[in-house]
TrEMBL record, chain A:
This is Branched-chain amino acid ABC transporter ATP-binding protein/permease. Gene3D superfamilies: P-loop containing nucleotide triphosphate hydrolases. Its main location: membrane. Keywords: ATP-binding, Cell membrane, Membrane, Nucleotide-binding, Transmembrane, Transmembrane helix, Transport.
TrEMBL record, chain B:
Keywords: Amino-acid transport, Cell membrane, Membrane, Transmembrane, Transmembrane helix, Transport. GO terms for molecular function: transmembrane transporter activity. It comes from Bradyrhizobium zhengyangense. This is Branched-chain amino acid ABC transporter permease. It is found in: Cell membrane. PANTHER family: ABC TRANSPORTER ATP-BINDING PROTEIN, BRANCHED-CHAIN AMINO ACID TRANSPORT SYSTEM PERMEASE PROTEIN LIVH. It holds the Pfam family BPD_transp_2. Belongs to the binding-protein-dependent transport system permease family. LivHM subfamily. The chain crosses the membrane at residues 12-33, 40-57, 63-86, 98-116, 143-163, 188-209, 229-251, 263-283. The keyword Kinase does not apply.
Length: 613, 291
């Protein structure tokens, strides 16, 4: 609904910022408090891109806040720099550069490691500011005398002094910050950020270099922090050393969680609640030092019961109300309309071949072996698939089929052996690069971006193919990516999910999720598609549909399919390879395999497996 | 300015600090390893241990009772925290676990600040360990030597619990694969509660043992928490031997660097952590594949 009014959020923000000085004083907000809220809000915009959108919880943002603040303040107070805005920009650049270097270290690990490392790094900055660099930073005294901005327009000079006058400057900075942040989260990069938050494994597998994107988010957050830090100095006419403390990072995290992560405006709301409660509890209720305890309890309760924070809660509430209304309106029409039996769309073209002259087998594996300690999962497998072939792989449970697939897509490295894709040795490459070359797989256990809609899922996969593994188009809209809409629509039609395009994945039925799983692999336009048990867990009717789907996508594409459903598989494929205990038992046409004594032995005799069909 | 006795005494300081860090980090690391939850309130547990011991000492004037009561109190608090809140977060994302434990840590610190004010409190060392010991070549505070011994005993006890008992075997198996342990018919949730209690107790015990060395303030756990993180990153998350090794390394780095310039202690600690991350991303004794 926001799509039809693309500038709605921007306009509302502008209106809000213009109206604020006329309304807020009546609610008991001093101009200085409002300015502080805006600085926190700006600081939080970058942090929300990092935490709310990309899913990286850093407890070390004070390092960049302080760096930006002190660089700007140093330039203005000690280095004889007079341009306030210029100094703020320099501070921002310094913080972003620091963020890049720190990111290189901190992003070596994910999850809790990342959180711990950022805490440690921020603490280092705090001590460095106090001791080795105290000549530059004033140590525990900070840097007093930071001037306020003024602009000489030739005919007149605008000077933002303090209070509501300074508010105009800070509000303008915040507004620009909001516009940039909105552009970023709506860009292809923003889409990939959410993919990383939702399922980093799959984001990697569809061909995005997620490490570079994470670093991008980290640098963006550092840049916002640096600029906000500089503004803090301007606001207080003094750069306080406590900008560098762990408390600063902690307060930012808490405000963002209170206000609502992943909303961009959450940090602003959180800061408002925080500063208002601080004033209110301290002075009005006379709680003194206990205010922080009250805030802590509020925070814990919110994390426990309202995960999306205040803004997230409001959005849910709005969705509940408007969703009910919309459903009522659409119920009447939808009940009558039977899903039309649409003609299957034309098969999607596979990616252009990089070197069309090559005519050998599309995939050739020789001597592929995988050992886990003493356990041999795959042993000396020789395997070759021709261009355009449809190959099936069967074998009893534990035969090493999935391990074999994981090696082919370079998810795991073989212990020994070689894999050649289209004449090119891909052994030891990364899964991202292999996908970019045109080889990907759909997973046995769904690996979807569960927090996003069907369309968003496919968009993320298609972006990898259209933009390559890393590109910094922060200000391009998704609509501006050439061919994206067509590719997504086409994949939607192919996997028959057009009617469910805007449904969140969590609301899909199992069979639909399985089709989306195939769609994710398909949206990267692979020339060689591996399917790991695409029919697993499906009802007989869903199987028939999926077999039809697989047949339609097989045109112009090479596919290798693992499945236990022999009837469906034998109907689909031209040749079958049977794996048993990590080795190739036999290869042949479905007819040969059906009558092969060794295969019958493998399934019914020697190994106590059974046909899972 | 660097004399041998000075260096040796700093090495001893490093040993005492390192032993403490090892004990606190062991608590953090077994909780994380078993439950998959990084307890950001662990520093607060350390602090509360100190205060609980302080209160006990005020009433009984017995250091031993203070240690016992302080440890037990923190263990109970840990169990309570796990039952009331943490267990609802096992199936929520890591970020939520971090947020809620971070918030709880702040609540604990502020609660203690409310009751005891920000003023520092002092717990004297037990009579047995008061004064200074002559080591032949230098004099050293007796209690700091005793800290090394006391903490070594505690670590030994923890080792026996982890490596010589049935519970310990389950805990170590749970660190490897808690789903498997669950499916073997062992009630992992009961084990989780016990582990959380033991992990918290390790921090609380360290808190009261450390109390006579420094003065108690509500914020005493914050720095310790950061140092503990470095220890865990260096040693490898989920590894008990790693926590001990990392603790000793961190303790010595902090002490020896402080001899030259205390301002660089954290920088050196951080440099060591970076080095480990570059050379062995999973920590010195960590296992590959654990995130």
């Amino acid at each position: 609904m926001l799509k039809q009014r693309p500038l709605l959020i921007e306009t509302l923000t502008a209106v809000g910022l213009i109206v604020a000085p006329f309304v807020l004083p009546h609610l008991g907000f001093a101009p200085n408090t409002v300015n502080r809220i805006l600085v926190w809000g700006l600081f939080g915009l970058g942090f929300d891109i990092l935490f709310g959108f990309t899913g990286l919880l850093s407890f070390g943002q004070s390092a960049f806040y302080g760096t930006g603040g002190f660089v700007a303040a140093y330039l203005l107070t000690r280095a004889g720099f007079s341009n306030v805005l210029g100094a703020l920009v320099f501070g921002m650049i310094a913080a972003a550069a620091t963020g890049y270097l720190i990111g290189l270290i901190a992003l070596r690990r994910t999850g809790i490691y990342f959180a711990m490392i950022t805490v440690a790094i921020a603490e280092v900055f705090f001590f460095v500011e106090f001791n080795p660099l105290s000549d530059f930073t004033g140590g525990e005294n900070g840097l007093p005398g930071v001037p306020t901005p003024s602009f000489n327009l030739g005919f007149t000079t605008i000077h933002f002094t303090n209070g509501w006058s300074l508010y105009q400057f800070i509000a303008l900075c915040y507004f620009i910050g909001v516009i940039i942040a909105l552009r970023i989260v709506r860009s292809p990069v923003g889409a990939i950020f959410s993919a990383i938050r939702d399922n980093p494994l799959r984001a990697t597998a569809v061909g995005h270099n997620i490490h570079s994107y994470k670093l991008t988010a980290f640098v963006i957050a550092a840049a916002y922090a640096g600029f906000a830090g500089g503004l803090l100095g301007v606001l207080q006419a003094f750069m306080p050393p406590d900008a560098f403390t762990f408390d600063t990072s902690g307060q930012l995290v808490m405000q963002t969680a209170i206000g609502g992560r992943g909303t961009l405006f959450g940090p602003l709301v959180g800061a408002t609640v925080w500063l208002f409660l601080q004033d209110f509890l301290q002075s009005a209720l006379g709680l003194g030092a206990a205010w922080k305890l009250v805030l802590g309890v509020v925070f814990v309760l919110l994390v426990c019961f309202l995960r999306g924070g205040i803004v997230g809660g409001l959005i849910d509430l709005y969705g509940l109300v408007s969703g009910k209304r919309a459903r009522k309106a659409s119920e009447t029409e939808e009940a009558e309309v039977e899903p039309p039996l649409q003609a299957p769309p034309a098969p999607m073209q596979a990616k252009e071949v990089a070197h069309p002259a090559y005519s050998g087998p599309i995939l050739k594996a020789t001597g592929l072996t995988k050992r886990y300690g003493g356990l041999v999962a795959n042993s000396d497998i020789d395997f070759s698939v021709n261009q355009g072939e449809l190959r099936g792989i069967i074998g009893p449970n534990g035969a090493g089929k999935s391990t074999f697939f994981k090696m082919l897509t370079c998810e795991i490295a073989p212990t020994s052996g070689q894999i050649v894709f289209e004449g090119r040795d891909i052994t030891g490459l990364k899964v991202t690069d292999v996908c970019q070359l045109g080889l990907t797989k759909s997973y046995q256990v769904n690996q979807l971006f569960t927090g996003l809609t069907v369309r968003q899922n496919l968009t993320i996969a298609a972006l990898a193919e259209l933009r390559g593994k890393f590109r910094l188009d922060l200000f391009r809209t998704l609509a501006g990516v050439k061919g994206l809409t067509e590719q997504v629509e086409h994949t939607l039609a192919l996997v028959n999910l057009t009617r469910r395009a805007d449904t969140p994945v969590s609301a899909l039925a199992y069979g639909e999720k399985r089709r989306l799983e195939i769609g994710l692999a398909l949206a990267t336009s692979p020339r060689l598609l591996l399917l790991d048990e695409p029919l697993a867990g499906m009802s007989p009717r869903e199987r028939i549909e999926t077999v039809r789907l697989l047949k339609s996508i097989a045109r112009g594409r090479t596919m290798i399919i693992i499945d236990h459903d022999m009837d469906s598989l034998f109907e689909l494929v031209e040749r079958v390879t049977v794996l048993q205990e990590g080795r190739v038992l036999v290869s042949g046409t479905p007819e040969e395999i059906k009558t092969n004594a060794a295969v019958q032995e493998a399934y019914l005799g020697g190994v106590h497996g059974e046909i899972a069909a | 300015m660097i004399s041998w006795p000075n260096l040796v005494s700093q090495l001893f300081n490093g040993l005492a600090l390192g032993a403490l860090l090892a004990l606190i980090s062991s608590g953090l690391t077994i909780i994380y390893g078993t439950l998959g939850v990084l307890n950001l309130a662990h520093g607060a547990m350390f602090m509360i241990g100190g205060y609980a011991g302080f209160v006990t000492y005020q009433y009984t004037e017995s250091f031993i009772l203070a240690v016992i009561a302080g440890s037990l109190f923190v263990m109970l608090l840990g169990v309570l925290m796990e039952r009331a809140i943490i267990r609802h977060f096992y199936h929520r994302p890591h970020e939520d676990q971090l947020l809620v434990t971070f918030g709880l840590g702040i609540c604990f610190v502020e609660l203690v600040r409310l009751v005891f004010s920000s003023q520092s409190q002092i717990v004297p060392p037990p009579a047995l360990f008061q004064g200074i010991t002559n080591l032949g070549f230098m004099f050293y505070p007796t209690y700091r030597l005793a800290v090394v011994g006391i903490v070594a005993i505690a670590l030994g006890a923890l080792f026996i619990v982890l490596y010589r008992t049935r519970l310990g075997m389950i805990v170590r198996a749970g660190i490897e694969d808690s789903v498997m342990v669950d499916s073997l018919g062992i009630n992992v949730y009961r084990v989780f509660m016990i582990v959380f209690g033991i992990g918290a107790m390790a921090a609380g015990f360290a808190g009261i043992v450390n109390a006579p060395v420094v003065s108690l303030t509500p914020g005493i756990g914050d720095d310790i928490l950061v140092q503990t993180f470095v220890v865990v990153v260096i040693g490898g998350v989920g590894s008990f031997p790693g926590a001990i090794l990392g603790g000793l390394i961190a303790g010595e780095i902090i002490s020896v660097t402080s001899m030259f310039n205390p301002g660089y202690a954290y920088v050196m600690l951080f440099a060591a952590m970076t080095l480990v991350l570059v050379v062995r991303p999973h920590g010195l004794l960590g296992v590959q594949g654990r995130e």
